[in-house]
Amino acid sequence: MSSAIKVTVNMDAIRRALDGKLTSNRKVQEKSQQVASGIFFRNHAAMMKDYFSNAITQELKAGNTASNISDTLNGEGNLFAFLGFMAGQDPTYELEDLLLKIRLGYARVNKNSIVFKIEGMQS
Predict the structure, then answer these.
(1) Within 10 Å of residue 2's Cβ, how many Cβ atoms?
(2) Beta strand 103-109 with 114-119: parallel, antiparallel or unpaired?
(3) Would residue 22 count as lying in a domain?
(4) pLDDT 10s digits, 52-63
(5) Which domain holds residue 66?
(6) Which of 108, 100, 102, 104 is closest to 117 using CA atoms?
(7) Residue 80 burial (C-beta neighbours within 10 Å; 0-12, 13-18, 19+)
(8) 103 φ, ψ (degrees, to nearest 5)
(9) pLDDT band at residue 105 under the 50/70/90 scheme
(10) According to the model, what pLDDT value does residue 16 have?
(11) Structural domain contains residue 1
């Protein structure tokens, strides 16, 4: 004859007991920062790759002699000249500068969460 043991776990009680304890733990905060940083940097790198490979970015960076690779002007002229930039100007510089300055910032610990914020978009 076999006997069985039945165990019931009250998950709500466990959550209530852990509220605030995990988020205030230094090791949990450090691991959260590590995970959030990894996610942020992968996504930031993908965003920058998309930005630099975009036909409009490439056309503007190529300057006043570029062909209309973005096909925004039906192949007539180029965006650089159409938008009125002068030879030697880099119309992408300011946006690139802002995008490259974006950083993941540690904001605060709430009762049940660790909150991060994106910083660096101020001009």
Answers:
(1) 3
(2) antiparallel
(3) yes
(4) 999 999 999 999
(5) 12-119
(6) 104
(7) buried
(8) -135, 155
(9) confident
(10) 72
(11) no
Radius of gyration of the chain (CA): 26
**Centroid of chain to Cα 116:** 12
Flag whether 69 is in a domain: yes
- What tokens were used for 78? 């180029």
**Distance, C-alpha 40 to centroid of its chain:** 5
65: nearest Cα among 86, 50, 51: 86
Residue matched to tokens 């709430």: 110
What is the domain count for the chain?
1
Residue 22 has pLDDT above 60, yes or no: yes
Q: 95 lies in a domain? A: yes
Alpha-carbon distance 4 to 68, whole Å?
Answer: 75
- Secondary structure string (H, E, C) spanning 92-118: CHHHHHHHHHCEEEEEEECCCCEEEEE
Contact of 66 with 59, CB cutoff 8 Å: yes
Residue 36: strand, helix, or coil = helix
Q: Give the SS3 label for residue 7.
A: coil
